[in-house]
Amino acid sequence: MLQHTPVSRRLKRKNISAALLLLTASVPVMAENNVSIYGIIDAGLLYQSKADPTGQSKTSMETSGLRQTVLGFKGDRDLGKGLEGFFNLEAHFDTNNGKFHGTGDADGTGTPFFRRQANLGLRGDWGSVTFGRQYGPALLAHIATEPRAFKEQFSNLYAWAYNQYAATAGAPGTERNTNNDVGIFFSNAIQYRNTIGPVNFGVLWSPGGKAGSMDKNTVLAAGASYTGPVILSASYQVIKDEATANDNVKHGGLGIAVPFGDFTFKANYLNAKNQLSTGANVSNVNAMGVGVDWKWHPQNTATLAYYDNKDKRNSKDHTRNIVLSNDFALRADTTIYVQMAIVDADSAATIKTSIVAAGVPSVGNTATLVNAGINFTF
């Protein structure tokens, strides 16, 4: 035990004084910052009437049925003269097992801790510029026109993602792009965003980082939405090969949403072309979704949607899907949801035409899936 000698008392007083000085010195710095922790936790049960390869029924716990489960940190600070700095850090994990969610990055590039966002930027009256890993502007443009707003289960989020994965996520020496994660998240990216009147838009560029080339391994993406009496959306992005600068993926989309009283009618069209540098066409998928939201009660919104997704290169890679759901908002930060999908999959259906997170439930069959869960935000 330390005895309280005069020397120890002097040291103790000095330590306390130093701690108080450090604390008081840090107060003005903290006062200039606005930092918050946020997140989504989502889990439920998923039943499917048929499951490959046996075709028997299956019941499992499902993470992120409504929205992705994330933990994030964000902040901003006033830099003066109308300029503001900001940052975003966002990790993606699975509620059922606590593990990090898988990544769609190229093989050998590792599993990112902050898969969804790791960026900082500047904004003002002129718009914003963001540097680092971030959401692309193409997908963001269509959230209001996609029939189910790209929900994590039973939407064309997966036709979007897996059609920008096959030709970009290979091992070193194969067709790949190390800045792309399923056409949704982009590393080493610079994005400009702005809102001018009813139009919100973004343009993103990921430099390839390859010596002697401004094209190899790059990504160029753009998206815009118009919000007026109706909502319109459009997007286009190109993902280039790291070795040849080939356009491995070309992806475009158009959408419309029409509010009418308690109803909102939506239609969204997406097309993804995958072509290797050898000239071989991997796929050419048309993904069409139509639907209607009905706010039949202040706390309840029902959605009916139909998706028809087909690979023009392979006519049997085709799924037809009907989705019926209801979201019950217990309060602004808590939602209980029930959603059902009927998936009619042709004999060669693949995940490229699927609206189900885990892929086609039963190739060559019609399967019914029911997912019920709860979604917390904080």
UniProtKB/TrEMBL annotation:
Any Pfam family the entry gives: Porin_4
Membrane topology: Multi-pass membrane protein
Signal peptide from the UniProt entry: 1-31
One GO-annotated biological process of the protein: monoatomic ion transport
Subcellular location: Cell outer membrane
Keyword Hydrolase: no
Domain of life: Bacteria
InterPro entries referenced in this protein's UniProt entry, alphabetically: Gram-neg_bact_OMP, Gram_neg_porin_domain, Porin_dom_sf
Main location: membrane
Keywords for this protein: Cell outer membrane, Ion transport, Membrane, Porin, Signal, Transmembrane, Transmembrane beta strand, Transport
Domain spans labelled Porin: 19-345
GO molecular function: porin activity
Cellular component terms per the entry's GO annotation: cell outer membrane; pore complex
Subunit description: Homotrimer.
UniProt-recorded name of the protein: Porin
Species this chain originates from: Zoogloea oleivorans
